[in-house]
Amino acid sequence: MSPLLEVKGLHAAYGETKVLHGLDFAVQQGGVTALLGANGAGKTSTLRAICGMVRTQGEISLSGKSIAGMATEDIVRLGVAHVPDGRGTFMELTVEENMRLGAYTRPAREATADFEKMFGYFPRLKERYRQQAGTLSGGEQQMLAITRALLLRPRLLLLDEPSFGLAPLIVREIFDIMGRVREEAGVSILLVEQNASLALEFAEDAFLLETGRIVISGKAADIGKDEGIRRSYLGY
Amino acid sequence: MEGFIHQIVSGIATGGIYASVALALVMIYQATHHVNFAQGEMATFSTYIALVLINLGLPYWVALVGAFAISFVVGVLIERVLMRPVTNAPVLTSVGVFIGLLLIVNSMIGWIFDYTIKQFPSPFPDKSLMGGFVSGHELGSTGVTLAVLILVYLFFRHTRLGLAMRAAAFNPTSSRLVGVRVGWMLALGWGLAAGIGAVAGCMVAPVVFLDPNMMAGILLYAFAGALLGGIDSPLGAVLGGFLVGIIENLGGAYIVGTELKLTMALIIIIAVLTLKPSGLMGRKVYSRV
Known about the structure:
The complex is a heterodimer of chains A (about 240) and B (about 290).
Chain A: E1 5-14, E2 17-27, E3 32-37, H1 43-50, E4 55-62, E5 65-66, H2 72-77, E6 80-83, H3 95-102, H4 108-121, H5 123-127, H6 138-150, E7 156-160, H7 168-185, E8 188-192, H8 196-202, E9 205-210, E10 213-219, H9 220-225, H10 227-234
Parallel strand pairs in A: 3-8, 3-9, 6-7, 7-8
Antiparallel strand pairs in A: 1-2, 1-4, 4-5, 9-10
Helix pairs in contact in A: 3-6
Chain B: H1 2-32, H2 39-55, H3 60-83, H4 91-113, E1 128-129, E2 134-135, H5 136-158, H6 160-170, H7 172-177, H8 182-208, H9 214-229, H10 234-254, H11 261-275
Antiparallel strand pairs in B: 1-2
């Protein structure tokens, strides 16, 4: 079976500054791939490159169709949802409006049915439904960001550090729900995480970035077991 | 006392015009953080279009809707053709484009329709109502203005497209990530602003008469209104517009006289910018340096 997302020789730059130097990786259909690395390694930039938010070179294809160079909103409309760095909450709008925007590309009636499913995953959002999203806590905003992304009914979900700045219990809750979502919706995930042990437990494949290059890639379980890699790159 | 109430009532009527133009300014400001200096001239142009449609024999209200529609398309085209290329340019570039647009539209109006002052019809009966407090046109134009403002409010609150336009103004990056075509939302905002300007122009033209510089003063009052209410708050802009209309009328009648009315707008602008730059309902923006 061919992979859902296939990236070959991906370069990216902000103006003159090159941040990615020829990445090759794939996300399998229905699979989870973890993208690890230290601060500034290029993890967030990789996700941005896939969504056409930075200037790129190289091949990016979704189910065999090239998406390199397309506008962000067109890539999104092909079923790529991105939970961005910083959560991307529409602070001035209500939780309800944030959710409606998540379902913006889909028929309204279909989306309303999905709202109930989301409340099943995150009951907290139902309590906060009419509240301004800017008043939510960090964990709630992360739940809202994931909800917004899922309401798109994505084929590929790009998650940028869902654990960032959150209490361990909430991180656990979010990852448990991501596991459920994955089984129920059959969505493939590319996960960026600083918390390597958590990510390796959740993913099947993983690769490790260092200053814009892939230094290690393979099965998540093998990487987690390799003491040398763990000590020198993952720090646990 | 009667004179005082009359001044307030007619202040509300002109204030409605300022409120509409202020709303048009704020709509573009919210999305781009620039004030469209050409908003007034665009409205004047729209008013001429309405006059052409009326002279072609169309009923008044059909002509008004037609002028709205044509202005909408022109607004969208201006954004797509002129503003789009300078989206990421420095502030002064945008200001230059706005001023260029102002001059071009103004001269074009004079060139096409000539500079003579023209009468513009009012659809409302020419008689005093409520014991002489208010003229038919004042009451009617206030009604039309309020109807437009309410429709705009309902559009932004309760439609998908309205929500997407607000989202695109607040947070373009996240909007793209949910599939909103941000560039088009901006163009629609320009179209809507131009359409609102068209209605405002048609409502004020019977009072001040139609000439190429008709909106120059009005834009200044509207800008004062937008600042007073808070340049990033649509509701504030509307409120500010009405307030400026009342202040202008009362000041003109009792303090500075009609000759110096326009000065009131400038005083309001300076007062707001020095005393409360965020306006009555605007958000304070802090930035770290």
